[in-house]
Design goal:
heterodimer, A: mainly alpha, 3 domains, B: alpha/beta, seven-stranded mixed β-sheet, globular
Chain lengths: 309, 207
């Protein structure tokens, strides 16, 4: 796992550099922007360390880490929905039955089941639980909200640990690197878009959804992360051009995922999904792009690189 | 031994409340302080004071005691353990005909003993569609008896969604506890209670 060691060392050096820059800025030009930068970087330390520890401990720890992230994301999502008393049982089932089962089946490597469990079984059974209560007011909205919450925060997010089960010839035992590539590209794409926004941003790309996002940030972020992705080919089973295309796809899905999740926040008139992660907002504020990118990256990899899928 | 067991149970209850609700205290126009205070809040759930407790910094939690109904908390040995040893509630008799002690002097005594209090002036759990029921007069009489004690309004949000009436499984929903600037005592009873109600309502997050 030398590649992983290099990768994490690089990230830690990068964070050290940003942390020191933050401290220097705080001395010279203190202000809310610098405070936010420091809070964000501190949260990044926690996230990187949590990932590093999970990577060291192996499969079980990674599955548990993402189950924990799903739990927090689902809670943030459900908090913003219009639940009624009649929905109590189905929401309890989402948290205490469906979420643990989904991650248990991933841990068990039962692909035939976890890949359809929420889209088929939960999709059909949850409305049955809801209808048993006989409360019809807002019925479609209520069952749709619960299903959407499960799809986004549990199903899509649970694709990340599934990479551990892929069997790519010539890449045996290295699947952690695919997770590292995915997370790195998604998060760098967010950060780079933000930096390009700050440096060159002029033309707003979606003023009603995300007032800070600009065309310049989008183009600059997506292009630079495509180049970085291609340069990271050595940690993947891909050739440089393939790694670049993958990074492009991940980055685009991440961008649009961010917009979709913003639209929900705007509709509910909140700025962030929560405030558990200082400087970032909630778990979903950090995971929105990953949620949209992970399933696509997984299925592209599986389709093109797994010999007998 | 009983005390230790009570303290450990209290710690576990707070931890559990945190795990389910991710509760955080929002201090708006008031800061956490070791001063003796009366926290008065809206009341929609039996777990309200646990949430308020969990939102306080740990060092102030120990001396903050809820005011609760004796008839409810002494009904079984388990409840009595929770009420007396875990949360160290000031147990008052709600029925004026049977009670031997005056609730207001019981509360004042607890304050004199160095405790802060948690009070739900609506008098009972609000299960109606009304946002806040009219306050009972206990808060006024307590303020009159101890005018130097700070009266801090509190709004507890979302807890009724975690555990609606008649349910036994709590669902994870993010809750918040918002503290506001203290309300001053004034001799006019109606005006004081109105001001206290308004102070609590003003902390409600818009939804």
């Amino acid at each position: 796992m030398t590649e992983l060691t290099i990768l994490f060392s690089g990230l830690i050096l990068l964070l050290l550099f940003v942390s020191i820059t933050g401290r220097v800025l705080d001395k010279r030009r203190p202000g809310p922007a610098v405070d936010n930068l420091i809070a964000r970087v501190n949260a990044w330390w926690v996230m990187i360390l949590a990932l590093a520890i999970a990577f060291m401990l192996g499969r079980t720890a990674i599955v548990l880490l993402f189950a924990f992230a799903s739990f927090n994301a689902l809670r943030e999502f459900v908090t913003l929905t219009h639940t009624r008393r009649a929905d109590h049982l189905s929401i309890a089932a989402a948290f205490f039955l469906i979420l643990p089962l989904q991650y248990f089946m991933i841990w068990q490597d039962w692909y035939g089941m976890f890949s359809i469990f929420i889209p088929v079984y939960a999709f059909l059974l949850m409305p049955i639980v809801a209808v048993a209560k006989g409360e019809t007011e807002g019925f479609l909205v209520r069952i749709a909200e619960v299903q959407w919450a499960l799809m986004i925060t549990v199903y899509c997010l649970s694709y990340v640990p599934v990479f551990l089960s892929l069997e790519i010839s010539g890449f045996e035992g290295e699947n952690l690197l695919l997770i590292a590539f995915l997370i790195l590209v998604v998060q760098l794409s967010d950060v780079l878009q933000y930096i390009w926004d700050q440096l060159l941003g002029k033309h707003k790309i979606a003023p009603r959804l995300s007032p800070s996002k600009t065309v310049e940030g989008f183009v600059g972020g997506v292009l630079s992360v495509t180049i970085i992705g291609a340069a990271m080919f050595w940690i993947t089973p891909f050739a440089p051009w393939q790694a670049g295309l993958m990074a492009l796809g991940i980055s685009l899905m991440g961008f649009f995922g961010g917009l979709v999740m913003s639209a929900i926040k705007r509709d509910r008139e909140v700025k962030d999904w929560g405030d558990t992660i200082a400087g970032h907002g909630g778990f979903l504020d950090r995971l929105d792009s990953l949620v949209f990118a992970a399933p696509l990256f997984f299925h592209l990899t599986r389709f093109f690189w797994v010999s007998n899928p | 031994m009983r005390r230790l067991l009570g303290d450990i149970t209290a710690g576990m209850i707070v931890l559990f409340a945190r795990a389910i609700t991710a509760v955080r205290g929002i201090w708006r126009g008031v800061a956490p302080s070791p001063a003796r205070r009366v926290y008065f809040a809206n009341h929609t759930s039996n777990a309200d004071f646990i949430l308020l407790w969990a939102a306080l910094p740990a060092q102030y939690r120990r001396h903050t005691r809820p005011v609760a109904a004796a008839d409810y908390w002494l009904r079984s040995r388990f409840r009595a353990f929770i009420g007396r040893d875990v949360v160290k509630a000031v147990l008052i008799d709600r029925n004026p005909d049977t009670r031997t002690e005056d609730p207001v002097s019981q509360m004042a005594e607890a304050l004199d003993g160095g405790a802060s209090l948690i009070l739900f002036p609506e008098g009972l759990r609000n299960q109606s569609d009304i946002t806040l029921l009219p306050f009972k007069t206990g808060l006024y009489h307590l303020a009159k008896a101890r005018p130097e004690v700070e009266l801090v309004p509190v709004w507890i949000a979302n807890l009724n969604r975690v555990l609606p009436k008649g349910q036994i499984i709590p669902v994870p929903i993010i809750c918040s506890v918002t503290f506001g600037p203290p309300v001053a005592y004034q001799p006019d009873k109606c005006a004081f209670l109105k001001a206290a109600e308004q102070a609590v309502l003003a902390l409600r997050p818009e939804d």
